[in-house]
Amino acid sequence: MHQFRHTVLRAALLAGASFSLAAVAHAQTDAETATPAAPAAGESEGIVVTGIRASLASAAKVKRDSVLIVDSISAEDVGKLPDVSIADSLARLPGVTAQRLEGRDQRLSIRGLGPDFSTTLLNGREQVTVGDNRGVEYDQYPSEFFQNVNVYKSADAALIAAGISGTVDLRMLRPLDKNDRILAVSLRGQMNGMDKLNPDGERYGYRASATYVDQFADDTLGLSLGFAASQTPSQNERFNAWGYPTDADGNLIIGGAKPYVQSNLLKRYGMVGTLEWQPSDNFHSTFDVLASHFEEEQRLRGIEFPLVWGTDVGVSDVTVENGFVTGATFSNVYGVQRNDYNKRKADTISLGWNNDIRLNDRLKLNVDASWSRAKRTDFLLETYSGTGYLRSGVSDTVRVERQSNGLFSIVPTLDYTDTNVISLTDPNGWGYNGTTAVVQAGFLNRPKFIDDMKSFRANLVGDISGSIFSNWEVGGNYSRRKKTSAYTSYFLCPTGGTDCTIANGTPGSAPVPQEALLGKNVSLDYLGVPAMLTLDPLYLYNNVLDAVYDNRPSSLVRDNVVKEDVFTGYAKMTLDGDLGGKPLKGAIGVQVIHTRQASTGTISNFSNGVVTVVPASGKESFTNFLPSAQFSVELEPGFFVKMGAAQTMVRPRMDQERINQEYNFNLANVGLGSDPQYSPFSSNGGNIALRPYQSTNIDLSIEKYFPGGGYVSLAGYFKNLTDFVDPNNNIAYDFSDVLASLPADIRNQIIADGSYIGLLKAPANTGKGTIMGAEGTVSLPFKAFSETLDGFGIFASGSYTHSEVKYGSNPTDVVTLPGLSKWVASGTAYYEKSGFQARVSYRYRSSFLGEVAGLSAAPTFRTAKAEGILDAQIGYEFQSGPLTGLSILLQGKNLTDQPFVTYQNGDKRQVIDYQRYGRDYYLGLTYKF
């Protein structure tokens, strides 16, 4: 029989690989979870509940037993979270939403606050990120590696590095929790509903994983290992509008457009391991390691159309509805063809060693040491082509009309595939190096980020008898975080000159080489452009274009290092007793946090055509006190009231703490008077003296758990925010020190009118506000109503959030918080019995302020349209016979084909971004030995 199983497994895996073009997928194995669920009422102890029902029961147990207000997701099996990714699963929890980037759920918002206001832990340890700042991009963590994920929404003194909005704790499997050896392998194939949009893109992908768990030395030594590999393609039909100025009649009209088709391919390889040793009840040691490497390639092709904001563009045949131009013909348009290529490489490693030591019957010591490091490098390549340098070639006439979905159709008359007309050039003469024009036929950004954190923690826990207090705990944590940001960029121009300038011999254009043609031209027919010239941007970069270092003042002062040394001490008392005959649990405590933060970087000065860059450094230290208290009272069996009150904080974005400043001098402002906003001097940068955001939180949760399984809960919360960071803060600054570098006549004019007082832009803690909301959850197995409904159930949640935040610089305007959707809802209906499983999930979020990539990949914020996303899956696990241990799964994601849409000025007609990703389909096979 054993040999037969191996033969069947091999055949099944080969069949799956053949069906999905070598597709492989994540592990979905054993039905045990980190916290085994108790059998539901009426079920025999011998019946094993598996899959989603076991996952929901385990998550409910975590929620019920916790004094903190927490929501949880648990693996349905070893290495099998309920969804394609961690972020997908977390987005189904009450008050949690995910923002899609490149078609994947990557960033989380909790209770109306964006990813920068929460903290992500791995096995209780704060983690670094491959992102630009603190917010974790969950792509860096393969979901196969985690047994459960907890989202803490209230704070505790022992919860180090808690966020204002919440704390996400990713928990790996513990091998000694398992009773026997486990070996599981899984393969899954992926197909996008849209065919690949670029000829050098991919439509099919795969995911593979293997999990091994075993125990040795009389079950005192445990080992778990996990490996995962994936190749995930995605497609993206993109439209971007430059903006909507008003025409001569006061009607809003599109300023320009930048449509693309984009093909992405994400490759990720990961490994996780845990060694657990418990030779006696007095000693327990656990060592964890997680390593992940991913590479993402993006191929983007499209045409930028300067319309009403173009130079000498004519407008005719205009149609208008309610003050908005819905159709127009634009003449004298010089389109800029784009053949771009982006590549990101990122490596993450995390090590942690935890030791629990019982010193005597009443005293325990815990010591934990950890290190995590993330390194990311980007290669962001843009190449341009058109009809001639600086509008010297043939112009185009374009008809633009607004469609019912908010997109604009763009129908040109020029053939953008004709190499007799199209050349490699700077069609509109946009290139400028800070002092003179350059022939910018392309541009290259090469940023690099390294995020490193080392932590050491120790705490003592002592038991108390004869009191309502059950134990006391004191501890301390030290962490050092260092984030290095380095930027390099280059102008790309036709070969023949020395510095990309016409004056030094650079030609205005270069012919398109035949070797760069891919053979099949890309179509933008979803907007009305039949085809565009499709080139290999890497060939152009390596063989055709010269790269000249970008030494603009704004480019020279981007490199920086931010360091944070954080010393945290805490003490708390744990309650476990009765209150009026009712079971009471809780804790009261306080954290004392001393921070030393420092930054090194550069400051630039640009005046009279001369750029000066000087090194700069700064440091700051401060101390915060964070008290907390939380209580849980069981008023009736299974009926809990939980309350929490705490002062919490979260640190600003790391790029806001940088010392860098970019000084600018605008000659056109000389003589405009002494008002600082019209001064010729200005500066823009960070602020090393920034303090953390502060929040005073009150939380209340009412939870009812049913004997037959399931629960309902209703929670409310209030957050009073202070020291809120205003990223656009300006202060008056005396620029007298740089007057000496100016010509005498200009210097004397500035002194005479007092305009040497200009504006220095640097973030400051000038804001304050409130956030309040409510969230409800229902988890019901229908067996509680009737035995005939055994296997059916629902899990649903909804939340409402209201916020009011104002900056000190403009106290009359209410700020829209990034990531805040007022209304969020999700629901899952499922059936699972006798190995068969089916479920449908839907999630909705109202409009919100989303962070997207702006100019040169810099983050920018725009209002995102409300969206609803439908996912579904069906599967079967063989529970008897020769195929026992084999399961199959079919999944569909984004079945509503919901686009991601942003708009501006609160006007949904003013669409800025429109991105359609298509549907994704997955077919998987899993075998558990």
UniProtKB/TrEMBL annotation:
One of its GO terms (cellular component) is cell outer membrane. It is found in: Cell outer membrane. Residues 63-165 form the TonB-dependent receptor plug domain. Keywords: Cell outer membrane, Membrane, Receptor, Signal. Residues 1-27 form the signal peptide. The keyword Signal applies. The keyword Calcium does not apply. InterPro entries: Beta-barrel_TonB_sf (IPR036942), Plug_dom (IPR012910), Plug_dom_sf (IPR037066), TonB_rcpt_bac (IPR010104). This is TonB-dependent receptor. It comes from Sphingobium yanoikuyae ATCC 51230.
